[in-house]
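ok new one. same drill as before - structure tokens go in, u give me an amino acid for every spot. 182 of them this time. try not to just spam alanines like last time pls lmao
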């Protein structure tokens, strides 16, 4: 039977590797915010898997909220134009905010989101991202928690999509070229 996995050229990070790293980050976050828990802000839709697996490894009375922004549409390149599709339901004034992301590629999405959230008067804003592509950076962003730095390849899975599909792959992988070409 045809399988979603047939479209994957190679697995970059296995489900086990991701889980291990998120366990480390969760412990680090719990220690850093022991005095006052942050509100976790997940960036829909890509951060859904990271949020679900990271939040369960942060042993604090934390809250979760979501923003939906999109800069990629259905293509593979960032347009740089960020749209808010859904805003927070929480007032973050005087709160510690920890943004949870799946990937920092060009950095344009987060750089925009950072200044948007900072304008709301939070106590602090930090970032936790599972993946970062140092070679693709178009803006420098200070990131407190990074799971893995990865090469500049188009990756999918574990929340990351190509044309809205492949988010449900349990690992992070690189698609076969044939998937793009036809
Ligand atoms: C992807 C990804 C990050 C962003 C990173 O989101 O989830 O949010 O792009 O790219 P950048 O650093 O170049 O800005 P996307 O806009 O595709 O929306 P999605 O999360 O719904 O897939
Ligand atoms: Mn995203
Ligand atoms: Mg996307």
């Amino acid at each position: 039977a045809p399988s979603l996995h047939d479209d994957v050229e190679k697995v970059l990070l296995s489900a086990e590797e991701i889980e291990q790293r998120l366990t480390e980050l969760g412990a680090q976050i719990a220690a850093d915010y022991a005095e006052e828990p942050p509100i976790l802000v997940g960036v829909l839709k890509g951060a859904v898997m990271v949020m679900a697996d990271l939040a369960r490894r942060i042993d604090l009375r934390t809250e979760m909220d979501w923003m939906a922004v999109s800069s990629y549409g259905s293509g593979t390149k960032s347009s740089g134009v960020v749209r808010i599709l859904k805003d927070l339901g929480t007032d973050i004034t005087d709160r510690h905010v920890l943004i949870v992301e799946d990937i920092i590629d060009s950095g344009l999405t987060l750089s925009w989101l950072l200044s948007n959230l900072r304008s709301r008067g939070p106590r602090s804003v930090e970032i936790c991202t599972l993946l970062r592509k140092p070679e693709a950076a178009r803006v420098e962003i200070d990131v407190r928690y990074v799971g893995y730095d990865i090469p500049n390849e188009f990756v999918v899975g574990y929340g990351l999509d190509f044309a809205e599909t492949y988010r449900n792959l349990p690992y992070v992988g690189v698609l076969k070229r044939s998937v793009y070409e036809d």
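The mean pLDDT is 94. and btw The longest strand covers residues 96-104.
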